[in-house]
Amino acid sequence: MWIERELAASLVGLAQTFPVVVLVGPRQVGKTALLERTFPHYRYASLDVGELGEMAETRPDDFLERFPPPVVLDEIQYAPAFFRAIKTAVDRRRAERGLFVLTGSQNFTLMKSVADSLAGRSAVVPFLGLSGREWAAAPGFVEQHGFRELVWRGSFPGLWAEGTPARDRWYQGYVASYLERDVRNLLRVGSLRDFERFLRACALRCGQLLNMSELGRDVGISPTTAREWVSVLVASNLILLLEPYHRSLGKRLVKSPKLYFTDTGLAAYLMGLQSADAAWASPQAGALFETHVVGQWHRWRDWHAPAAGLWFWQDRSGNEVDLLIELDARLVALECKLGSRPTAHDARGIAKLRAFYGADQVSAAFVACTADAPHEIADGVVARSGFTSWEVQPNTKAGGSSRRR
After folding, report:
1. Number of H helices, E strands in the chain
2. pLDDT single digits (tens) 297-319
3. CA torsion sign, 241 to 242 to 243 to 244?
4. Domains along the chain?
5. Of the candidates 331, 340, 354, 326, which has an alpha carbon nearest to the alpha carbon of residue 383?
6. Low-confidence residues of the chain: pLDDT under 70
7. Radius of gyration, alpha carbons of the chain
8. Cα–Cα–Cα angle for 110, 175, 209, nearest 5°?
9. pLDDT of 20-59, one tens digit each?
10. Which of 286, 301, 172, 186 is nearest to 236 (CA)?
């Protein structure tokens, strides 16, 4: 069963505006399937296949003769030299749009090549697995599975297809192939077992401030190596680092980022949680829920509001707000609480934020929870389901609610 992706219409619009569109995301999030469905009249070539990757890298003219635009090129990072040929082809056909649609799963090589060769010629769109709204729109999914299983099983579309192997087996193969194909290409890791232990240590730190020294010590590697390996996970789009909001930097605010996995199912697998019930009964349940909520808003930003800033806020006294959405220099504050009945006490971090920056700087405030229906829990703070994102308005009065997208 095909699950409609929110980004399809936007990709068509971008292809009508730019000569090159680049879709960047982890392996298995559905990049190829989306592009084949969205651009059925385009030619298609995967550079992950040795022969085609080698041809694009060493004989670009022959490759373009075999696959002339318009064309979808999958896993473009395997032929970095081919970006010069793309630039030349685009410059020869300046009036044309939608010539190349590219995908990639490694940001290191890909984004350097895009910056060097395709600046001003390309639109770059980050892409992740299913959003809560996409998943909920699939017929029968909410009734049959419930959102808790989405958080535990994860957002990779293949996990929801008929005939998919058991969830644990699927992730076992995913992690093994990721270690073999991506890590070996990006790093000289002495022991893949050490790197897998590092993955598991990162999963257990979801929603926490990132401390490289502690992370390295727990795995038995240096802080420098930990920092390098974190960069690989970010480049592979497996984790994201949420930076602290620091308008008016001062000693009262923390400066370390928080770590999240881009897929909660992968995090839950690495945590060793073997069922949805076990996940929601575990000490990691709150962190998994927060990771899911933050992931929904990253999708929202990347797919619908690329100018928005996403941050968290925390001062040295421990007062914090899990997510800030910055729109038109004003803030939407969002706190994550696992439970269906949050109280005003759960919004105390939002109150501290308002006191710190001024209430007029906070255009709206929410507590993301598991409640079925939105309801106000404090002055200007609305509790609503965190399983999906919703529309936020930058000019709403402080505390005002936003209508559903």
Report:
1. 18, 13
2. 999 999 999 999 999 999 888 89
3. negative
4. 8-126 (3.40.50.300), 132-293 (1.10.10), 306-385 (no CATH)
5. 340
6. 107-109, 185, 188-190, 248-252, 393-405
7. 22
8. 75
9. 999 999 999 999 999 999 999 999 999 987 899 999 999 9
10. 186
